[in-house]
Amino acid sequence: MSALPRGSVLIAGTTSDAGKSVVVAGICRWLARRGVRVAPFKAQNMSLNSMVTADGAEIGRAQVMQAQAAGVEPTAHFNPILLKPGSDRRSQVVVRGRPIADVDALEYYAFKDRLKEVALESYRALREEYDVVVCEGAGSPAEINLRRGDIANMGLARAADLPVLVVGDIDRGGVFAALYGTVGLLEPADQALVSGFVINKFRGARELLQPGIDQITALTGRPTLGVLPWLDGLWLDVEDSLGLDAARPATGTPHGEEPLRVAVLRFPRISNFTDLDALSCEPGVSVRFVTGPGELADADLIVLPGSRATVADLAWLRDRGFAAALAATDKPVLGVCGGYQMLARTIADDVESGKGMVEGLGLLPTTVRFEKDKVLARPEGEHYGYPVRAYEIHHGRVTVHGGTPFLDGCRQGRVFGTTWHGALENDAFRRAFLAETAELAGRRFVPAPGTSFAALREAQLDALADLVADHLDGPALDALITSGAPAGLPLLPPGGVPHQPLS
Which family is it part of (predicted)? Predict the structure, then answer.
């Protein structure tokens, strides 16, 4: 390749979970390895998986992972608008890292003009600072019912004149219909920016796929820039609970005599479930997400993870019969953030649920009160004699009335609680915690020394960059980034859907 690229590209997808986030991460690492100063950007993200930047802003966890791929410190500009659903109809709106409102879908449209300008300001700031900005779309650009107010897909592409690559997930089937249909449903000015396709998660012989690639090129006039093969064990920071069904990090033979089995309650509004990825990375530790108390029977450690809707998910937990099972078990229990709040004696919530005083599970000597202001922090501490770095995202304030200290929270007997996300990513602390919980559970499990969660994450990012380098057309991608969408791309007929100006 000749001159390094300068410019931008938007990676869209035929569906949610088509692989946009990991393709963006792979391109970021591929560019960074070539000496390009690159930043990821997602104008609007809907996710319950978030993190806190060094300057105290809350952004999507996927953008933090992509920033790591790019080798840069994440900022609020990387994800200026974050929507955090609290129910099927309402979401918290986080703008440049700070919550500004809780709205339903219709109320959200009142913010659209303002938020579009916020997103464009952040994009322009990144373009001034970085050589390349790799943008990620949201859902599908062909969600025509949402096009008028779109600020994450073709709305952004049109406003910033971005070339667009559409990623299709062939593992789901119907990839060629999805690629053709995505282009065909767009209005002409949007179609003019769709510059090519990437087929993702391919298993099998490329020769059998080639006739389809040739036909989709002939039908649309757009090339397929590459076919990314299926990558076993990919687990990088998925955006939503769709990713929970994917394989977790592979585990190996335990260092001791027995494996350790971890059961994680899969709340309807589960958040920051990537806390558990570090456990899955330990050889001999098996992590599974459960929805019924019968699945706890053989668990050695039970985890109540984060929740965007603590009181509502606590009610779900009770309705499913988990409360009695947790009270009766003699195995260790860990609550993180929302899960920690559920373990309290009482929860006073006039903010998130509006339910007022609610009885908690009573497994820890704590009480919780929700406050309007959200805590966003990157705390540091020490436990078991090892340093711990973490992050906090919560409205609930926990008051401890007894027990013994555990990180920022407390412990009583076999039950542990903390508001700190990411604590288990600290290797020495994680191994000490697993050793103690294994002893409490009566398991002959010894954590293997030397497992580095950070090194495993870096290896995943490098593997993604290798996929991009080996299977995408690098010169064509460079040309798109630098020169934009080619002129004169053919327009597809609307397929029965009238094209009307929506911008």
Answer: Belongs to the CobB/CobQ family. CobQ subfamily.
